[in-house]
Design goal:
The complex is a heterodimer of chains A (153) and B (68). Chain A is of the alpha+beta class and 153 residues long. Chain A has one domain. Helices cover 33% and strands 36% of the residues of chain A. Chain A has three helices and seven strands, in the order E-E-E-E-H-H-H-E-E-E. The radius of gyration of chain A is 16 Å and the shape is elongated. In chain B, a hairpin with a 2-residue loop joins strand 2 and strand 3. The longest helix of chain B is centred in the last third of the chain and has 14 residues. In chain B, helix 3 packs antiparallel against helix 4. Chain B has one domain. The two termini of chain B are 15 Å apart. Chain B has a three-stranded antiparallel β-sheet with strand order 1-2-3, covered by helices on one side. The chains are: A alpha+beta (153), B alpha+beta (68). Chains A and B meet through strand 4, helix 1 and helix 3 of A and strand 3 and helix 3 of B.
């Protein structure tokens, strides 16, 4: 198995009960190429989620879609914006410890030149993590963001 | 498996995913719908393994599900 330590950045708009929220996340995920040829992506932060695919890109695309689906479920569950924000923070901050341990080992392999993912840009593994949940009140083109997957190095 | 390895776990069905709460934590992304297991059992087992890893009950889950 090959592990790739990735940094995951997304900015999503989510409608909830009486509010529109913007969720900006900078997280970590572990991409694994399994022996059977399948790829899995496990969340480190946000933990508690995983996606798979026949290729790395398919697994990563599925992970992004699942991430949005979890946000939609949290929004449908939340009575108000504060409840939504609290749950999204809980979702993000609940680290997957087994995935984190492998993510950190994989960073060392990237730094040693043993693992590479030429299709991804590289960012420092120490890139600041976090999630910002804000009320969406003033639309502006500058809020648009494509998101990014990067190899942590 | 949850009965054996995560006693007291609570399953909640949501519009897009199934949530599993246990030990103060939540797995948010189980795609196990009403007919999910019948449609694609391989994928479901893979997700169950990742959930067990997240809850740190993987050894117990492997024994319970008789997985390698």
């Amino acid at each position: 198995m090959t592990h790739y330590p990735l940094l995951f950045a997304r900015r999503e708009k989510v409608e909830g009960n009486g509010f529109i929220a913007r969720v900006a996340v900078s997280g970590r995920v572990l991409l694994t190429g399994e022996e059977d040829g399948e790829f899995w992506v496990e969340g480190v932060n946000p933990g508690g989620m995983a996606a798979n695919g026949k290729t790395a890109n398919e697994a990563l695309a599925q992970f992004c879609q699942d991430f949005l689906a979890v946000l939609f479920d949290i929004a449908s569950d939340a009575k108000d914006f504060e409840g939504f924000r609290e749950q999204v923070k809980r979702f993000f901050e609940d680290t997957s410890r087994p995935a984190l341990q492998e993510w950190e080992e994989a960073v060392q392999q990237v730094r040693a030149g043993e693992v590479d993912a030429g299709w991804l840009i590289k960012r420092p593994a120490e890139t600041k993590l976090g999630v910002e949940v804000t009320l969406f009140s003033q639309p502006a083109a500058t809020n648009n963001h494509l998101g990014e997957m990067a190899l942590a190095a | 498996m949850l009965n054996d390895c995560a006693p007291g776990a609570v399953i909640e069905f949501k519009p897009h995913k199934t949530w599993v709460h246990w030990n103060g934590r939540t797995y948010w992304d189980l795609p196990l719908g009403k007919h999910g297991a019948r449609q694609n059992p391989e994928i479901q087992i893979g997700h169950v393994k990742r959930m067990a890893r997240f809850f740190e009950i993987l050894d117990c889950a492997k024994k319970s599900l008789r997985l390698q």
